[in-house]
Design goal:
This protein is α+β, with helices and mostly antiparallel strands. The chain has helices at residues 26-44, 61-69, 122-131, 151-155, 164-172; strands spanning 8-13, 16-24, 48-54, 74-77, 82-84, 94-95, 99-105, 108-115, 140-141, 158-159.
């Protein structure tokens, strides 16, 4: 991670921003990208920002909330390190991609949805391992692709996607 990135934004079209995060910390680059998208949206009615050269930007919810507070609906997604095996597979091929949707709701609180595509976060499996407790077999598989209740085997294996084969399909997309 570059602690002092030179974040650059190009505008190849009025509503499109291409952000190069220079390997900067994710939330810093994410905030810049959101600001660039909102600025484009104010000018054209819609703003799109694509980011490269960044790191984990944290939960999607704060970005969704900010966009809604500025009167914009938002769709935000990111790639992620591979932790999910293909449906029935024995090797990680997909990231636990965070994604979210948000929209303003007039005088009411905005409508926000922030989700990753695994049944559970690896942090919950690590917590179970530290506590010496079992996990539900629907959370993860061992390194052979067999569902497991052993958190240590799960950490050496793969997260299960949400919604079975349908969640796997979402992960691919």
């Amino acid at each position: 991670v570059n602690p002092r990135p030179d974040i650059r934004t190009d505008a190849p079209a009025p509503a499109v921003r291409l952000v190069d995060g220079d390997n900067g910390i994710g939330p810093l680059v994410g905030r810049r990208a959101l600001g660039d998208a909102l600025a484009a949206g104010r000018q054209t009615g819609v703003g799109v920002a694509f980011v490269k050269g960044s790191n984990h930007f944290g939960p999607v919810m704060p970005y969704l909330y900010d966009a809604a507070q500025h009167g914009f609906a938002a769709v935000i997604a990111s790639n992620a390190t591979t932790t999910i095996a293909p449906w029935g597979g024995k090797a990680t091929k997909l990231g636990n991609n965070p994604m979210g949707w948000g929209m303003p709701a007039g005088d009411n609180d905005p409508i926000l949805f922030d989700v990753a595509l695994s049944v559970v976060a690896r942090a919950k499996i690590r917590a179970a391992a530290a506590a010496g407790t079992k996990i539900p077999t629907t959370w993860a598989t061992d390194a052979s692709g067999v569902p497991t209740d052993d958190p240590d085997a799960a950490l050496a294996g793969f997260l299960q996607p949400i919604a079975g084969h349908k969640g796997y399909g979402l992960s691919v997309m």
